[in-house]
Write a structure and sequence with these properties.
- By secondary structure, the protein is an alpha/beta fold.
- It has one domain (5-207): Rossmann fold (3-Layer(aba) Sandwich), CATH 3.40.50.
- 45% of the residues lie in helices and 15% in strands.
- The protein contains eight helices and six strands.
- The protein has helices at 16-30, 46-49, 55-65, 71-76, 93-100, 103-108, 129-143, 179-207, and strands at 5-10, 34-39, 79-85, 115-122, 146-147, 167-169.
- Strands 1, 2, 3, 4, 5 and 6 form a six-stranded parallel sheet that branches.
- Helix 1 (16-30) packs across helix 8 (179-207).
- One of its GO terms (molecular function) is NAD(P)H dehydrogenase (quinone) activity.
- InterPro entries: Flavodoxin/NO_synth (IPR008254), Flavodoxin_CS (IPR001226), Flavoprotein-like_sf (IPR029039), Flavoprotein_WrbA-like (IPR010089), FMN_Rdtase-like_dom (IPR005025).
- Belongs to the WrbA family.
- Residues 6-192 form the Flavodoxin-like domain.
Length: 208
């Protein structure tokens, strides 16, 4: 059977969300998936980015590691996992811009039935992690994705994360995701890949 194809699309400014994205990818690979990792691009120019220490430098470095996401990536995928930092309690503009650009695939119905999941990070405690993840559930529903939350189906969920997706609080970027939070992200990758495989197995069986 063909490997489930998992697309991980994230935006990260100071590497916390990137670190979670890499852990999600590790979990998906453990579950036998083929993955693509893509970083959403900035919607402002260098003159604006230079006003925030490290933003331009980090963006330049990450953009060398990861391609920009395209419509073709989402069409390719069996599962799409979105990752975002919290911006005033909601999704980062950079990631939302990519999602908004999927209107053509949405109109053609090409995203219906794909698996969807989310993860994220915030700089401050109670800074909106859960609200941000839940806010992404709405556009995923409009796109026709089958939303896969984490629940509490793995013991790692009783140590970190949320039932909606993996999370992290960076405390003004002073704290990196620890092993408990990375374990949740890996579990998310495994869960998404497993569900995607099950859906495709059922489709293959019906087609046969």
């Amino acid at each position: 059977m063909q490997k489930p194809k998992v697309l991980i699309v994230f935006y990260s400014r100071n590497c916390s969300t990137e670190t979670l994205a890499r852990a999600v990818a590790e979990g998906a690979v453990e579950a036998g998936a083929e993955i693509r990792m893509r970083r959403a691009r900035e919607v402002v120019g260098p003159e604006v980015m230079q006003q925030a220490p490290g933003w331009l430098e980090n963006a330049t470095a990450m953009n060398k590691k990861y391609e920009a996401p395209t419509e073709a990536d989402s069409e390719w995928a069996d599962a799409i996992v979105f990752g975002t930092p919290t911006r005033f309690g909601s999704i980062a503009t950079e990631l939302k811009a990519y999602i908004d650009g999927l209107g053509g695939l949405w109109f053609q119905g090409k995203l219906n039935g794909k698996v969807g999941s989310v993860f994220g990070s915030t700089s401050s405690r109670h800074g909106g992690n859960e609200a941000t993840l839940l806010s992404i559930y709405a556009p995923m529903a409009h796109l026709g994705l089958i939303i896969v939350p984490l629940g509490y189906a793995d013991a790692v969920m009783f140590k970190a994360g949320t039932p909606y997706g993996a999370t992290h609080v960076s405390n003004l970027d002073a704290v990196k995701p620890d092993e408990d939070h990375l374990a949740v992200a890996r579990y998310q990758g495994r869960r998404v890949a497993t569900v995607a495989r099950a859906l495709h197995y059922k489709q293959d069986a019906v087609a046969a």
